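User:
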Amino acid sequence: DYKLFTISPEGGYPQRLPIDKAATLTFEPNGQRVAFTRTMLSFRTWKRYHGGWAENIWVGNLATHDFKKISIYTGNNQFPMWIGDRIYFQSDSLGRANIWSMTPNGGDLKQVTSHTDYDTRWPSAWKDLIVYQHAMDIWMLDTRTGKTNKIDIALPSDRLQRRAKFVNAANNIDSYDLSPDGKRMVVAARGELFSVPTRKDGLTRRINVSATSREKNPEFSPDGKSIMAISDATGEEELYVWDAASSVTPTQLSNSKLGWHYDPLYSPNGKWIAFSDFKCRLNLINVDSKTSVVIDSASWEIRQYSW
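Assistant: Predicted structure:
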């Protein structure tokens, strides 16, 4: 459970607030009341959550210990900010997270910002102003006028990470497969495919020739003549087959736009490939005809399958 403490700007020991469980909190200006949430989901990857951990806003008096939940929306009501006689907060009650406001008793609910493309995130108040993240920018809301504007930030930098540089691919291998005869391996590193010898002597070959796409999860065909892998060259993850001995243009096997693919697996005769997708479906694709069919589905990700 979250616990909140106060500490003097001059230093000293932290003093726990007399609230059994609290995650984010704002003080009433020149008053004894506080507005707070008892949980916090902003670090989670969940969106539009309506379960038992959903954030609700409470208002209470620290002197009388009288506390009451004032938010009625069953989803997330986050980051209460007490400004003047209203409590501002972030809510996704209309689908997209925006800044809202209400009175301390939960009435007169008003939507303040109207972003439709990205959620607002991490709002923080100072006097009559609220700053928050929107997409990858910082925006500011003036609660006196209701106007918002993006803050232009100039960040002088040598931009070292944008400079051309050599990177050791051996330190960035994320998947690999051994050829059927054991003489070579195909490895995926930083989105590129390499065929390497299993002994010290031999030539390392780069299989793919595009630096604008990411290839991953390579696998040799059962006869060792081809290499199958996932590529996002089209903008969506699809299955491709490369010649194992050259860098010719690969053959695209799928055009299903199924989004995220899980590890594809060749059948023992090399005629079929099984893989699952983000919709929790197990798919089977025919290598020759390039046609696929869904053979099973589940309520959760299908991550393990074998021939």
